[in-house]
Amino acid sequence: MIIRLYQDVKVTRPKTQSDEQVLEAALRLIHEHGPEALTFERLARACGLSGATLVQRFGNKARLKQRTLLHAWDGLDDKTRTLAASVAKTPAGAVELLVALSQGYGGIESYAEGLLVLREDLRDPLLRARGAAWKTTLCNAIAACFARTPNSPPDIGLLMASHWQGSLLWWSFDPTIAVAVYVEDSLDRFVAAVTTAPARGP
Fold it and tell me: What is the pLDDT along the chain (202 residues), one digit of tens a residue?
């Protein structure tokens, strides 16, 4: 049966696919089965191209994994920029931005798999640099939402982004409600504390 299915895949194999389509298939493999599941053999079955073609395009497994994770960063950068441009430049807009980014995590199993992907990012200097650049973009987008808010601290972007990441972690230990609901409540309380705090002296 397995042999027959594989033969059927070969018969219906598309002749061409863009690198972006292949990397999307690779990213699905990583998120569904973990980073170690990304092999040329499994990707060939997933995207319909031959293993030899994939090796010709990507060179080796390490390069394939790096290209896949860089592709994921491209997607997150695009999503962050799009959301940042669409939300109101208010504290509520900052909450909306981060809640929308949280919805991509799905349930606890998906979040846990995401941590395995994060481990791969942390091992690679190029991927770490992408994470650092995204932090700057995100913090700037959050800060823009507080530009007209009196008494907000100068590093509000980093403070709120850090609180958001912490709320995701605390949710993961007790995921009894949807992650977006948990994050929104946590961020609303953070904003209330920040915006009602008395002004600090010189």
Answer: 333 333 333 434 455 788 999 999 999 999 888 888 899 999 999 998 899 999 999 999 999 999 999 999 999 999 999 999 999 999 999 999 999 999 877 788 888 888 888 999 999 999 999 999 999 999 999 999 999 998 889 899 999 999 999 999 999 999 999 999 999 999 999 999 998 866 555 5
82 and 61 Cβ atoms separated by less than 8 Å: no
CA distance 19 to 36: 20
Q: Where are the alpha helices (DSSP H) in the chain?
A: 2-11, 19-33, 40-47, 51-58, 61-86, 91-102, 108-123, 125-145, 156-173, 179-195
Question: What domains lie within the chain, and their CATH numbers?
Answer: 1-59 (1.10.10.60), 70-197 (1.10.357.10)
The DSSP string of 92-142 is HHHHHHHHHHHGGG-SHHHHHHHHHHHHHHHH-HHHHHHHHHHHHHHHHHH
Q: What is the pTM of this model?
A: 0.84
Q: CA 68 to CA 74: how far, in whole Å?
A: 10
| Cβ–Cβ under 8 Å, residues 184 and 106 | no
